[in-house]
Amino acid sequence: MPYQVQEVEEIQASKPQFKYGICNSRFFDNFAKPQATKIFYGGAGSGKSLSIAQHFIMKLCSGDGQRRAVLRKTFPSMMVSTYLVLKDILEDWGIGYKENKTKHFFQVGKNRLYYLSLDNPEKIKGGEFKEIWLEESTEFTSNDYMQLQIRLSRDRNNENVVLYMSFNPIDVTNWCVKLLGQARNEDKDFLVMHSTYHDNVRFLSRSFIRKLEKLINEDYNFYRVYCLGEPGVLKNIIFTNYVEENPKNWPEFGESDLLVYGLDFGFNHPTALIQINFVDAVPYVQELYYKSKKTTEYLYIWMNENGVSHTAEIFADAARPDQIDYLCEDREINGVSYRGFNVLPGKKDVAAGIDSVKSRKLHISSTSPNVLKEIKSYKFKETKDGQILDEPVKFNDDAMDAIRYAIFSTDTVTGEAITLSRPDIKDYHTGPEEEEVENEIYQLNGCDTIPRFL
């Protein structure tokens, strides 16, 4: 049976650390409005994606017998991003649900919430769904959108379907940004909500807010997009020397081919672990791990449990010697023995490292959504007066740093040995980002304290 409001309140009362229990009323007020297409765009950390995910989970539990769908452009990007958020909310709220991993849906009572990709618009048929969410809408094409609108309007039973869209307006030429002009002139059919971190500041760490606000001195275009949530212009892109490929089409990696990893540490921003296989000095890039709010111990266990080589060189951020040393040692954690890894400090010269990466053609797996997302907007700094600087913007660059460490620290042409050293550190302690207090947050009114199941 679907959960009722009283049951939800009882669940919350028994879970004092209810991670996703606070809903942002700024978004939920707009969810209730009548427009058939609802567009949520703006800056980083504004809460738009999480709020929509909460809404779809609430509707899953509403008992109205309807089907709903959450879409990403590709299924790999769905499985390492939106899917995990939906699953986290279900588990955090203590919702009893069934999951069909073959047909890709969660079920509560007779309600279903599908998690799908739209690599083929024909997958979505008219009359099937009550609500659909295009997460990261800029990943889709205008043709995807038009095909979807045609399919959703074809069936009389689908006349009241609601389409949600969410995105950062990183490129003024993108069809989603252009759609905003039409949407504002047709307010009976379209709802448009612009949001920034100010709309979600209660849930953000001080370090994240500082990082956003510092973009005004780093790169004004990124400041407009990620801090102000206004459309930007993509230019001064650093890497264009790559192709996105299905890894099924890659050559088989043999023992004579070189395997290395790149590792960029983070906490509030993601830790990125990237695998690179060199075949005839050509790098094949695969994203393995890209997570925030996880400790080095969590990463260490994950690497042991997910087949990361214990002998291949892992080139990491040299500024984090404590974490490097931690990953190298054999350890026993909760009664389980784990092996250490061959982690070395990567070469740090950013400009030379970028040149090293640019000198090769990167083959990037289509199952590496965060690498692909970062590389499309990885750019040189641009001042407010338009001056281009010879250094990259330090924002959304975790995978790019990891790739640079791996490639620049590996001489795949001459085979020349690289002299590296690891400091002798006896006691491990967390790095500066891991020492941040989780509850060091700004307070702002405007949020409900209980999720309302409609």
Descriptive report:
- By secondary structure, this protein is an alpha/beta fold.
- The chain folds into two domains: 5-215, Rossmann fold (3-Layer(aba) Sandwich), CATH 3.40.50.300; 242-408, Nucleotidyltransferase, domain 5 (2-Layer Sandwich).
- 30% of the residues lie in helices and 22% in strands.
- It is built from 14 helices and 19 strands.
- The protein has helices at residues 5-14, 25-31, 48-60, 75-79, 82-92, 142-154, 175-185, 206-218, 220-227, 296-305, 321-328, 350-358, 369-375, 398-408, and strands at 37-42, 67-72, 98-100, 105-108, 111-117, 131-135, 162-167, 190-195, 242-245, 258-264, 271-279, 282-291, 313-316, 331-333, 336-338, 343-345, 362-365, 380-382, 388-392.
- The chain has an eight-stranded mixed β-sheet with strand order 3-4-5-2-6-7-1-8, with helices on both faces. It has a seven-stranded mixed β-sheet with strand order 9-17-12-11-10-13-16.
- A hairpin with a 4-residue loop joins β3 (98-100) and β4.
- α8 packs antiparallel against α9 (220-227).
- It is globular and about 60 Å long.
- The two termini are 15 Å apart.
- Residues 1-9, 11-17 and 412-454 have low confidence and may be disordered.
